[in-house]
């Protein structure tokens, strides 16, 4: 799942500033190690719908009733990838006293129906073109050949980002997140 890499890198950046235990449940990783990590009672679980459902099916006493916040990021993509049924099942396993956040760049009818059916008094917030980007946000766009991307990123980090500035880097896959993590921690 391409969007999962962006979520992982964002979480890795944010968690470095707080004392929270986070588990990633993603297909392709060892179920046994994920079972062990879940046994540690993490504060935050970030999961793909299929892998979370797999854990709920495999672990008899796993419950989502105590979850206080649930976030469906890139919800339109999740629906577009066919995860609607899993998302409905996940919502059914959550307690009623939770806050649900659903983020989406678009609002297809299936997603709007999901929000109406699965959420209590949903609120819709839209960003207008004038308020989409903060004037304090620095943006840059570079056209590079594939082999120039990592050297350019390292140059930007080392030469143009101050040690007191927080930075988010978005990549398309889990593999890219892991590679950048190794690259930046050398």
Automatic annotation (TrEMBL):
Q: Which UniProt keywords apply?
A: ATP-binding, Helicase, Hydrolase, Nucleotide-binding, Signal
Has keyword Hydrolase? yes
Any one GO cellular component localisation term in the record: cytosol
Which PROSITE patterns does the record cross-reference, listed alphabetically?
HELICASE_ATP_BIND_1
In this protein, which residues make up the domain named Helicase ATP-binding?
1-125
GO MF annotations for this entry?
A: ATP binding; hydrolase activity; nucleic acid binding; RNA helicase activity
Pfam families xref list: DEAD
InterPro entries attached here? Answer: DEAD/DEAH_box_helicase_dom (IPR011545), DEAD_box_RNA_helicase (IPR050079), Helicase_ATP-bd (IPR014001), P-loop_NTPase (IPR027417)
Q: Does the keyword S-adenosyl-L-methionine apply?
A: no
Which SUPFAM superfamilies does this chain map to? P-loop containing nucleoside triphosphate hydrolases (SSF52540)
The secretion signal range is 1-20
Q: What is this protein called?
A: Helicase ATP-binding domain-containing protein
